[in-house]
C-alpha cells in the first residue's frame, strides 16, 4: 500500500465546493431513502476494507490491529447502523410542549439540512474522529472530508474508497496540508467540524467568523484522574495505564495526569509497576501491543516535555527517534507547576501528582483550562459525586477511561478551551439539521389575537391586560402569596366553553357509556 499522499489542487477544491452546493440545491438528499442508501454504503466501505484500514493505520501510526478494531472500526460501524435504524424517527417533526401562547397554532419543529459541511479530521483517529460524516449523511447534507496529511496512507486510502462507495455529487475527500486547508477555510460552509489543537482551532474559528459559519471544535486538553485513597488501585492501574497508552498516548480524551493523596502515591506506583509488566513485558519496544508517534516533530515535542520535568521517572523513559518510539512512561512526584503540567502532552507519558488533600486538586482543575474529561476513581459514590459537582469539563467518567467514546446515545464534546459543540448519534444529526419552528394559525384564533389589529383603543388595551398579561404568581419576601388571576381566567373560560356545549358533552358521555356496556 502506497503512503504517498496526492494533494488536491487548489482550483479543484473550489470546483468541488461549487459542485456540492449545486447538488445540495438540487434536492436529491431530501429523500430519506437516499440518505439511508448512502449510510448503508458507508457501512460497507468500512466493513469491506477493514483489513486495508488496519494496514494503513499500522503504516501511519504503528498501531496494533486490535486497537484499530476496538477504537475505530467497530464503534464507527456501530454508529452507522444506529443511524440507519433510527433515521425514520429522527426526521419526524417534533411537537413542543404546551403553552398558552401557541394555542391553536399547531406548532412543530421540522428538520431541514443546513447545507454543505466541512469536516477536518485529525491524525490520531482518522476514522472515528471523522464520524460526524454519519450525521451529515443522515441529515441530508453534502460534505467535504479533509483527513490529516500526517496519516498519508490512511488519507490516500479514503480518497480511493469514497468514489467506489459514496455518491461523488455529495461526498468528497480533499487531501493536502496547510495551503489546501487554508483554501477550504476561505470558502463558505453551512457548518465546520474541526478536531485537533487549540492553536489551529482558533484559526478555524477566525476563518469561519468571516462567513458567520457555525463550527464545532473538539480540542482535547489535559484531562485529569482524581483518585481517592479508598480506591481499587489494581483496577485504577489497569484502566488508566491502558487509557493513557492506547494509540501511544495520542488520544484527546486520554488521562494526562493523576492527582492522588500524598499518602496513597506509593500504592498507585506499585499498582502501575505490576500492570506495566503484564501489558508490555520486559521491553515495551518489542511489544506488539504498543504503537508509535505519528511524526518526528511530535516526537521532539514530547521528549522535550519529558526532559524538563522535575518529577522522577519510575517506569519507561526510553526513546528512539528513528523509530518514533517513546516507551510508556510513568513519572511520580510531579508538582502542580511542573513543565509536564503546562500543556497537553499527547503522548505516552503519565504524570502522578501527589496533593495534600482533594480540595487542592479540585481548585487546580477549576483554575485551569476546562478539560475534555474529568475522571474520578473511588469506591465511595459521594467522593465521585463531589468531584463531578466541583469541576467543569466536557464529560465526566467514574472508575474508567475512554470507553464512553463508543456511545452513540450521548453527546461527545468539550467546553471552554476543550472545545464547543458536540456530536455522535442523534446529536450529529441534530448538529447538521435546522429545527425550523412551523405554525398554522386558523381564522378563529383572532378571537384571542385580534387585539393586535389597529385601531388601538382603550377597550382593546383593557382586554389585552385581562387576557394576555400574566401576573407573577410567586410570593415576595414577607408578603402573602398573590392570587393567580390568570389561572382563574383560564378556568372561567373553560367553564364557559363547557356550559355552552353542555348538551353535546352529555350526549358524548352517553355514547361512551353505551359503548362500554356493549
Question: Any chance you could write out the topology, listing elements then pairs?
Answer:
Blueprint: H1 10-26, H2 32-48, H3 50-61, H4 65-90, E1 108-113, E2 117-120, H5 132-139, E3 143-146, H6 152-165, E4 171-173, H7 178-185, E5 191-195, H8 198-209, E6 215-218, E7 223-227, H9 233-245, E8 255-261, H10 265-280, H11 296-308, E9 312-315, E10 319-320, E11 325-326, E12 329-332, E13 349-355, H12 358-367, E14 373-377, H13 381-389, E15 395-398, E16 419-420, H14 426-431, E17 433-438, H15 446-449, H16 458-467, H17 485-500, H18 502-517
Parallel strand pairs: 2-3, 2-5, 3-4, 5-6, 7-8, 7-14, 8-13, 12-13, 14-15
Antiparallel strand pairs: 1-17, 6-16, 9-12, 10-11
Keywords: NAD, Oxidoreductase
Active site: 218, 252
InterPro entries: Ald_DH/histidinol_DH, Ald_DH_C, Ald_DH_CS_GLU, Ald_DH_N, Aldehyde_DH_dom, Aldehyde_DH_NAD(P)
Amino acid at each position: 500500500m502506497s503512503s504517498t499522499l496526492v494533494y488536491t489542487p487548489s482550483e479543484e477544491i473550489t470546483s468541488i465546493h461549487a459542485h456540492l452546493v449545486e447538488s445540495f440545491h438540487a434536492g436529491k438528499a431530501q429523500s430519506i431513502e437516499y440518505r439511508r442508501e448512502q449510510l448503508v454504503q458507508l457501512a460497507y466501505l468500512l466493513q469491506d476494507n477493514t483489513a486495508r484500514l488496519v494496514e494503513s493505520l499500522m503504516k501511519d501510526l504503528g498501531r496494533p490491529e486490535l486497537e484499530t478494531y476496538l477504537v475505530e472500526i467497530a464503534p464507527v460501524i456501530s454508529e452507522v447502523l444506529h443511524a440507519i435504524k433510527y433515521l425514520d424517527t429522527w426526521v419526524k417533526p417534533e411537537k413542543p410542549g404546551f403553552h398558552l401562547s401557541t394555542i391553536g397554532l399547531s406548532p412543530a419543529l421540522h428538520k431541514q439540512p443546513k447545507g454543505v459541511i466541512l469536516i477536518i479530521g485529525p491524525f490520531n483517529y482518522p476514522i472515528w474522529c471523522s464520524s460526524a460524516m454519519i450525521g451529515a449523511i443522515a441529515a441530508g447534507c453534502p460534505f467535504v472530508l479533509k483527513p490529516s496529511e500526517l496519516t498519508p496512507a490512511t488519507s490516500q486510502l479514503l480518497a480511493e474508497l469514497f468514489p467506489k462507495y459514496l455518491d461523488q455529487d455529495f461526498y468528497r475527500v480533499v487531501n493536502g496540508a496547510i495551503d489546501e486547508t487554508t483554501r477550504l477555510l476561505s470558502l463558505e460552509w453551512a457548518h465546520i467540524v474541526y478536531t485537533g489543537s487549540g492553536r489551529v482551532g482558533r484559526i478555524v474559528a477566525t476563518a469561519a467568523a468571516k462567513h458567520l459559519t457555525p463550527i464545532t471544535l473538539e480540542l482535547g486538553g489535559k484531562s485529569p484522574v482524581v483518585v481517592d485513597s479508598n480506591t481499587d488501585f489494581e483496577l485504577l492501574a489497569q484502566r488508566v495505564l491502558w487509557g493513557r497508552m492506547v494509540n501511544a498516548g495520542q488520544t484527546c480524551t486520554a488521562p494526562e495526569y493523576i492527582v492522588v493523596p500524598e499518602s496513597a502515591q506509593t500504592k498507585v506506583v506499585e499498582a502501575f509497576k505490576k500492570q506495566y509488566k503484564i501489558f508490555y513485558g520486559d521491553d515495551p519496544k518489542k511489544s506488539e501491543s504498543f504503537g508509535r508517534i505519528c511524526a518526528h516533530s511530535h516526537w521532539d515535542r514530547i521528549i522535550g516535555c519529558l526532559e524538563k520535568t522535575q518529577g522522577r521517572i519510575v517506569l519507561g523513559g526510553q526513546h528512539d527517534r528513528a523509530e518514533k518510539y517513546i516507551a510508556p512512561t510513568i513519572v511520580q512526584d510531579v508538582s502542580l507547576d511542573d513543565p509536564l503540567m503546562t500543556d497537553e502532552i499527547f503522548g505516552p507519558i503519565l504524570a502522578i501528582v501527589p496533593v495534600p488533600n482533594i480540595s487542592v486538586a479540585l481548585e487546580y482543575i477549576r483554575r485551569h483550562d476546562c478539560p475534555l474529561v474529568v475522571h474520578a476513581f473511588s469506591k465511595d459514590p459521594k467522593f465521585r459525586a463531589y468531584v463531578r459537582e466541583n469541576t467543569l469539563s466536557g464529560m465526566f467518567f467514574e472508575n474508567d477511561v475512554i470507553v464512553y467514546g463508543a456511545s452513540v446515545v450521548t453527546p461527545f464534546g468539550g467546553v471552554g478551551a476543550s472545545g464547543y459543540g458536540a456530536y455522535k448519534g442523534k446529536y450529529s444529526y441534530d448538529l447538521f439539521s435546522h429545527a425550523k419552528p412551523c405554525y398554522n394559525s386558523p381564522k378563529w384564533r383572532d378571537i384571542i389575537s385580534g387585539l393586535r389589529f389597529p385601531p388601538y383603543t382603550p377597550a382593546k388595551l383593557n382586554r389585552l391586560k385581562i387576557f394576555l398579561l400574566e401576573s407573577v404568581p410567586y410570593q415576595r419576601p414577607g408578603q402573602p402569596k398573590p392570587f393567580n388571576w390568570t389561572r382563574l381566567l383560564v378556568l372561567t373560560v373553560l367553564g364557559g366553553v363547557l356550559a355552552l356545549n353542555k348538551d353535546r358533552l352529555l350526549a358524548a358521555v352517553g355514547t361512551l357509556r353505551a359503548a362500554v356496556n356493549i
